[in-house]
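Open question from group meeting: does this chain pack into something compact, or does most of it stay loose? Before anyone orders reagents, we agreed to write out a predicted structure and look at it together. Recording both the input and the output here so the notebook holds the full record.
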Amino acid sequence: MRTFLKFFISGFLLVVIVVTAGVAQFTEKAEFGKFAITNATIHTVSDGVIEHGVVLINGETIEFVGKNAKITSDYHRINAAGKHLYPGFMDAGTQLGLQEIGAVAVTKDQAELGEFNPHVRAFTAINPSSVSIPVTRVNGVTHVVSLPVSGRLSGKATLIDLYGYSPDSMAVSPNAALHLNWPTAQKGGAGDQRSEEEVEKAYKKNLKELNEFWDRAVFYDDMMMSYEEGSADKEAPDTHKKLEAMREVLSGDIPVMISVDRKQDILNALEWTKKHPDVHFILAGVQEGWRVADEIAEAGLPCLVSTLFTPERAYDNYQRPYQNPAELHEAGVKVAIATGEIENVRNAPYHAGYAAAYGLGKEEALKAITLNAAEIFDVADRLGSIEEGKQANLFLSDGDPFEPTTHIDQVFIRGYKIPMVSRHSQLYEKYLNRGAVEH
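Structure tokens returned:
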């Protein structure tokens, strides 16, 4: 009876959440077709700023960028005088679309049982009706990387547009990267009562398990390649789902995103990556990256960073998180913004804003949340800048999008003119004049 009640309550909560999510979404459809955005200040990112420029959108694609365009009558004109046009922002590390309510287990799809789950795909678990998606995109964030987070090898992240009715219609790169949580050689904070010897022992054990799984994957890949290149009359080896999922990683087709924060852990991870020269690696988190920026640059690995966190060490200056992207960039590291958030992915522009104010500069901060991120995930041919032939992920604002007071006027995702409605705007309208009596 208790089991039945448990499933009944879980099912009821899921229905309530789905209904609530449906209410929270926009009530009008996105527009699609041909649009002419005129008189805009165009921040191309890849080719400077164009004053009083024109961008033509034809379907999903940017058709023209420049001045003096010939605009036929079949284009819907948008006069952007006094407005700024930017490429859509990209948050390179989130859990958006994988969790709705942290306290309700049936709405959490970012974690699986087990330590090694390279076969798990965030793409299959994305909820297109997530309440957090409209809240995020109306702030200029048009595409994100969403990733599983549990265990050692958590699974494969997905790169999605923030518009669509199914994961398939949202996907930019269904399998964008394999997420690896690096085993730490540090204590887990003030509450960690382990001795230094115990910490070291746990680290060596975790690293040994990772290496053993990796070696098995390499052996399996070699075996399968040998079979595929050999005679067709040979009996096929048994397929192993987890090891099969590692093959596109070992071949370098998709990168490995290593989440690692502390100085020594970063150095340990860098040393480990040298043993796998055919694999592409990305560092994520990297909260103490500024301490080993030269070593990261020498390794040639890009970094996905945030700025809104508290320093790990009590004696570090409070500005260090804000300065981290700039110090990495100065050392020669390519940086991109990754908030690590769920419902607060909407704050990605302000992570970039802090980085800009604390040494990175506005131009590089803009790259960090657009073109750099697209290059790191190998989608710069489609996203990251305003260029002819690229996907029409754009937004119009009345000022600097790194400033919280700036208003985002319009967002385009894959050429769709998105209704500027979210749960936040609906609640604002609902309670704006509550209890007011007109006379």
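Observations to bring back to the group:
The chain has two domains: 27-88+384-433, 89-379.
The chain has a mean pLDDT of 90.
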